[in-house]
């Protein structure tokens, strides 16, 4: 029996989850990843079984000042719904205003970023800097919750273990968010200074789970069935949000939920080509070509002879040319696979 078949039977890990009245048939989500989880990538992950996804983080201040970029980041289509809109900011009124605007436009859930470690964000007291101020967290969440009440839209938060290394504040911050009206808490078990290095501490997620009544979603280092099983067992979490494990690997959702196995080479090729086309459709030729460069690295990691493809893809600004490069690479790869 394979691990994924094993997991299918282990319904203790894969199960439905309800967040603020939204019912999800499975508890495996796509985590927000700035620069990665845009509309094309979310569509591909949804196709592979991600039941819920978030936008990249969007500046509430940017929304307030009508920045085009903020609205572009929120671009969506009906077939990918439900998708949560993730906002970052530190001013309760501005956050509430942005949350209301997206609720008016049909967002089914608003998530608040309390985990971003980047200096340009934390320097403004936003992202993971909020982990130093449970009182402010409560006020932000309460303001957003109040703005969303008329729409029946829940607010959730996504946090880290804490800001300063060694000073774990996720339990008090999660309790503050819950008092403010958060319908769920996602916890990434690293301190701000760790960025994405070292290991995510799943026991921190357990401490939050034992403290709050709302669902707790685990984030951090779940990349396959074994890490999913271990993370869920250690943390007792209600669900998991997959981040880096989905980069170049949208199939992770069907694998983890026991709905399928790893892709064949031809399926991989088809999804990669679809990704490039979706990027062109939603972002235009030039942006598609430049943004696809990072995705191709992830998709082809570990595949034979992929370095030259990456070089070629990085040199062209034409989507048709990228498609030709990918097709010819997979044709050569298929030709060289021994037939039994
Ligand atoms: C490139 C990148 C971008 C990220 N962007 C966001 C973001 O916009 N909002 C957020 O809450 N977390 C963001 N994160 C954190 C992830 O959602 C996740 O919590 C973290 O990567 C740990 O999970 P993983 O090990 O599954 O990647 C980002 C992480 C990475 C690597």
Protein model, in words:
This protein folds into two domains: 3-256, TIM Barrel, CATH 3.20.20; 265-335, Non-ribosomal Peptide Synthetase Peptidyl Carrier Protein, Chain A (Orthogonal Bundle), CATH 1.10.1200. Strand 9 (185-191), helix 9 and strand 10 form a beta-alpha-beta unit. The chain has helices spanning 3-9, 39-47, 60-64, 68-73, 92-104, 119-122, 134-148, 170-180, 202-211, 225-235, 252-256, 265-283, 285-300, 306-315, 319-336, and strands spanning 17-19, 22-24, 28-30, 53-54, 58-59, 83-88, 110-114, 155-162, 185-191, 216-219, 239-242. The strands form two sheets. Strands 3, 4, 5, 6, 7, 8, 9, 10 and 11 form a nine-stranded parallel β-sheet that branches. A two-stranded antiparallel sheet has the order 1-2. The protein is globular. The protein is built from 15 helices and eleven strands. The model is unreliable at 1-11 (pLDDT under 50). Helix 12 (265-283) packs antiparallel against helix 13 (285-300). Helix content is 47%, strand content 14%. With 340 residues, it is of the alpha/beta class. The two termini are 24 Å apart. The structure holds flavin mononucleotide (FMN).
